[in-house]
Amino acid sequence: MQLERLKKIIGWAYEKSKFYQQSFDKAGVTPKDIQTLDDIKKFPFLTLSELNREDSMDFLTLPLSSIIRINYVEDSDAGINVTNFYTRDDIVKNVEMMIRCLQAAKIHRGSIVGVQGELSESRFLDVIYALESMGVTVVPLGNDYRRWIATLENFGMDMLISTPKLAVQLVIQLQAVGKNIADYPIRKIICLNTNNIQNPLQQHIEERTGAAVYNLFAPAEIGTAGLIFQCSNTSGHHVQEDNFFVEIVDFASDKIFEDEEHMGELVITTLTAQARPLIRYRTRQAVRRMSGSCICGRNFLRLATPFTK
Fold it and tell me: What kind of architecture, by CATH, is found in domain 90-236?
């Protein structure tokens, strides 16, 4: 499946995208060079600086009449300034991947889930759609702390979906009015980590809230929070391999690590994204492969970060 989809996406990107036509021609490669998965090594890497620098329309593979969502994301702290485009099929795929992530976190129909975040952001829209598709009760909280506090008083939310920064802000705002978040029924917090796979505030959030923290990697430039998800048994992070092809590359060179000993940079290729494929995108994230079957029963490739126990 991966090889079939890789051939298709390379051909699609080369035929439809001005950026990839120029990039592949400069590297002297064509879609015909993909005969095995290993042949991906022949193709050039894509970097964040290129995504920021190049015209977003040059990455687009379809006319705007075929696009049903456009999402501009600017994050000055992370140095990100990108525009993401989505077809109807892209959104369906993203929601399907998000449902897997949420089910792995043991969210179910009986859950009442509060969602902190800007709902003009595509990744949070995918979360809302996935929750509603699962029949979960959803409470959109937005970014206004006054709404957070009022809503917490009225509904017995047992789970929260947020970012590390917003989760900490909620703790602080409750403390400012003499309340303790640990007194509320929230027992699990799913954090969309926009800059790192590992949540730098995880221990602090767990200690202050008394809730278990479950992480999703949600970089703005990838346009989805469903690339990888934390194993429900905290045994690494599973890659959604039917939608992404993953390589681990030496940070200082183009050398690819196939073994489990070497920590390298996570490089991803989207296999199903229609509007704006990413071919060999260097994520700047340090990971290594994990071997053996996972006790959760999932067969997707697992990745460990430098902080994985």
Answer: 3-Layer(aba) Sandwich (3.40)
